[in-house]
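Practice problem 4.
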C-alpha cells in the first residue's frame, strides 16, 4: 500500500514512516505543513492518506480541509485522520462527505500498533474506522438532537460497534452472543431507524454513519 503522511510533529511523523515501512507499506510522501498536503496528494495519488487535523501554519483544521479537498478531486481517496482530542465538529464534517474510506482516530491509538494498522487497512479497503471515543461523542450528539429511545440497550450497543466498523463475528465476540443474535439485532436497528436492512459491510456502516450525521 502506498501511503502519504501529513504530520507536523517530527517524532510522530518519523515514527509513522518507520512503522508503515516495517509493516511492508510504501511511504509515497510526507508533509509537515497544511499547504503541502493537497499538492502532494494530487501528485502521488496514494492508496491512503494519514493526516493530522491541526497543521501549521495556523494549527486549526488545515489537515481536515486538505482531506476534504483531496476527496473532492480524488473521489474515494481513503483518508485516516488523526487528532489529539475528540473534535466532534471535525469528525462530523469529514463523515458528512460520505463514510466510505474514512477514519478518525485519536493519536493515542497510533501507539497501539495492531489497532492502528488494522484501522488503516479497513480505511484503505473502503471501510470505516472510528475511534470508540469519537463514536461515543457522535452518538451523544445524536441523542441530544433526536433520542434513540426506539432502540433497546442491546441494539444501541450493536449500533455503536457497527459504527466503529466491526463485522458481525467481532460484534458477537465483544457482546458474547451468537452471530445469529447480532444479525437479528442489526435487522431491528435498520428497521427502527427506517434504514434498508443489509449485512453488506461497507454499505451498512455508511447507513449507520449517515444516521449519526443526520
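Answer key:
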Amino acid at each position: 500500500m502506498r501511503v502519504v503522511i501529513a504530520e507536523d510533529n517530527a517524532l510522530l511523523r518519523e515514527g509513522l514512516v518507520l512503522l508503515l515501512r516495517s509493516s511492508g507499506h510504501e511511504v509515497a510522501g510526507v508533509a509537515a505543513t497544511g499547504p503541502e498536503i493537497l499538492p502532494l496528494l494530487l501528485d502521488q495519488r496514494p492508496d491512503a492518506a494519514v493526516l493530522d487535523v491541526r497543521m501549521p501554519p495556523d494549527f486549526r483544521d488545515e489537515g481536515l480541509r486538505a482531506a476534504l479537498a483531496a476527496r473532492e478531486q480524488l473521489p474515494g481517496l481513503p483518508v485516516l485522520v488523526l487528532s489529539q482530542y475528540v473534535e466532534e465538529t471535525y469528525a462530523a464534517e469529514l463523515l458528512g462527505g460520505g463514510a466510505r474510506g474514512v477514519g478518525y482516530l485519536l493519536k493515542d491509538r497510533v501507539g497501539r500498533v495492531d489497532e492502528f494498522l488494522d484501522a488503516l487497512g479497513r480505511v484503505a479497503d473502503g471501510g470505516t474506522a472510528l475511534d470508540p471515543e469519537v463514536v461515543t461523542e457522535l452518538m451523544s450528539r445524536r441523542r441530544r438532537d433526536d433520542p434513540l429511545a426506539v432502540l433497546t440497550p442491546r441494539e444501541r450497543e450493536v449500533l455503536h460497534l457497527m459504527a466503529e466498523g466491526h463485522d458481525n463475528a467481532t460484534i458477537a465476540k465483544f457482546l458474547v452472543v451468537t452471530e445469529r443474535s447480532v444479525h437479528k439485532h442489526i435487522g431491528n436497528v435498520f428497521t427502527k431507524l427506517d434504514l434498508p436492512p443489509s449485512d453488506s459491510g461497507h454499505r451498512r456502516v455508511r447507513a449507520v454513519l449517515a444516521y449519526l450525521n443526520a
